[in-house]
Structures are given as structure tokens and as C-alpha cells.
Amino acid sequence: MKAKEIQDLIDFIAQSGLDEVNIETQEFKIEVKKNSSTTVKEIQQVVQAPVAAAAPAPATTTAVESSAPAPAPISSGSEKGKFVEIKSPMIGTFYQSPNPESPPFLQEGDTVKVGQTVCIVEAMKLFNEIESEVSGKVVKVLVENASPVEFDQPLFLVEPA
Q1: Which domains can be identified in the chain, with CATH numbers?
Q2: Average pLDDT by consecutive 10-residue portion of the chain (161 residues)?
Q3: What phi and psi values does residue 114 have, to the nearest 5 degrees?
Q4: 13-22, long-range: CB within 8 Å, 24+ apart, which pairs?
């Protein structure tokens, strides 16, 4: 269920006069209670363990100073290497390729460009292509293929170009 659909549901409930609505499927559970204002109390997606959901947002990038040991050999000379994280914009399952027979979108050492598809995150049977907002060299793939990811979880470390 997308953020817009959730908002539409909240608006519908607010206008309907209902005080409480529970919706549960195999993929998610939503419980909406109306007090002085309608609020979404709980959104859960059934993966391995229920996880609180946040509204999907565009892929985000954050600059990170490498104070921990470098995840991969990098020639940075005397300067500290600076990396950018490509993060998951939603909860779901991370896939490195469009299908099991295809090669991964990105591997360590590959060059990535802004707007390039870096992976797919499946959320509630929808396959969302995640695009890079940074150009550079992929230093580390931080998530294993077909594993669950959380909102804002780092997926890749990129050395900006």
C-alpha cells in the first residue's frame, strides 16, 4: 500500500463517521483509530518480523566520513576517504538484479551515474527500481541479495566522482 493510498484511506475514514478500522492481509496490517483526529496507529508489513513502516520517499544519499576500517581497498592517499550511502527509500526485499538469470545492476568496483538503477526493492508485491542520486565508484554492497531491508537502511557505499 502506497503512502497516497494510506492517506486516501484515512481521509475516507474521517468522512465516514467510523471510529475504528482494522485491515489485515498477508502482506500488511493497518489499524486506524479516530479520536480528536484520525491517525494511523500501526502499519506492519509481514516479513520475518513486523516492522513499523514509513511513507516511501525518494532514494536518499548521505555523506559519511570513513572513521571505521575501509570496507574495501581504496587509494585515498593522505586524505580521509569520503563515501556516500545509497539508502533504501522503503521497507521491502532487496534484489540486486531484475530477475534471477540477470547479472546484478551494480557490483563492487562498478561506476554508477545519477539516475542509474542500482537495485530493486520489492514492497507488497510491487517491484520498485531504486535509482542513484550520486555518481562515483561502488565501494561496497552492504546488503545481501533477497534479504529484507528497512526504511533508510544503507544499501551501497559510493566514492563520489
Answers
A1: 3-52 (no CATH), 61-160 (2.40.50.100)
A2: 70 69 72 54 40 47 45 39 90 95 95 96 94 95 96 95 87
A3: -60, 135
A4: 13/38, 14/38
